[in-house]
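Minutes, project huddle
Topic: does the predicted pose make sense with adenosine-5'-diphosphate bound?
PN asked that the exact inputs be recorded in the minutes so nobody has to dig through chat later. Recorded below.
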Amino acid sequence: MGIKDEFAFIQKISPKRSSSQDIIVGIGDDAAIVRPNINTDIIACKDTMVEGVHFKRETMSPYHIGYKALAANISDIAAMGGIPTFYLVSIVIPPSWEEDELVEIYEGMEELAGIHEMALIGGDTVSTKGPLVVTVTVLGKVEQGKGLKRSDAKPGDVIFLTGTVGDSAAGLHILLSDNTKDMKYDSLVRRHQQPLPQVEAGRMLALFSSVSANDISDGVASEAIEIAEASGVKLIIDRYLLPLSKEILTFGEEQAYKWALFGGEDYELIGTTSPENWEQIEVAFNEKNLAITKIGVVQKGTGKAFLQIGEETLELKKEGYNHFR
Ligand code: ADP
Ligand code: MG
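Predicted holo structure (tokens), as shared on screen:
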């Protein structure tokens, strides 16, 4: 039945107190005003989730939809080495959604926003006869000139990856195959519904120079190709070095590697750096108990990524989901 009163809805989803001193004007005026700190660069990104395209109600509760829509954006800020600060939400509402469910979407976002001390500073509310659409815009900050780009990979660099990959795709598989009652898969399902963006890892990487980075939204293959293309180099990933969780391995190695390479939505960080930096990065991550693994090397080349399996080398293609194909 959608929402009855737009004003009342906005009241409901507005933060009760504003935590940030950087907010000059929050929700309630024509636009928000925030004050940037000196010596910082502003990072901005936006991500849209469409019902039936990016999520289905059968596998994602309203709370999870909100959580994940914000997580995808925070992950982009993390991949730039930044701190997420503010978010804005545009919501396009079909009549089939109840107001309570829409409020739950915001509660999912609030949970994650709380972890990162981020504040909701605005948005837009409209109705539609089409599917639910949630668009989140996130603003973040990074020390001037310290933002991590995809284009900084150089021949001789080490390729690294945080955490484990493939778990989100495995979680979706479990949700679709209705195996959710099996508790041993809880961690995989959670990684699909409530992924953890790697802000702390991104911040650590931003302390070093000559680091390229990209977040895993479309699978390791696709993200590696993006770094290779942006940097004009060749990435060679060793299949046996890809970090996999023990939970995903219960589906067999072949399936696990497929999910890792082409699944996506893990929101880990993949990147490259010099061998000297890598030694220090590994130590720094270990000290903070953050997982990071060397998965390959960068060579001279032209925008392609390869997978090495023992003696064999295969070219990786972007087999992630492409909406325009
Ligand atoms: P205007 O007509 O000036 O665009 P709106 O009535 O759309 O104003 O919005 C009033 C205030 O509420 C603005 O601060 C806007 O950013 C905020 N807002 C509107 N919709 C949302 C939403 N879905 N989520 C968060 N903030 C919203
Ligand atoms: Mg106005």
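Observations noted during the meeting:
- The longest helix spans residues 62-79.
- The pocket of magnesium ion (ligand 2) is lined by residues 30 (CB under 6 Å).
No decisions taken; revisit at the next huddle.
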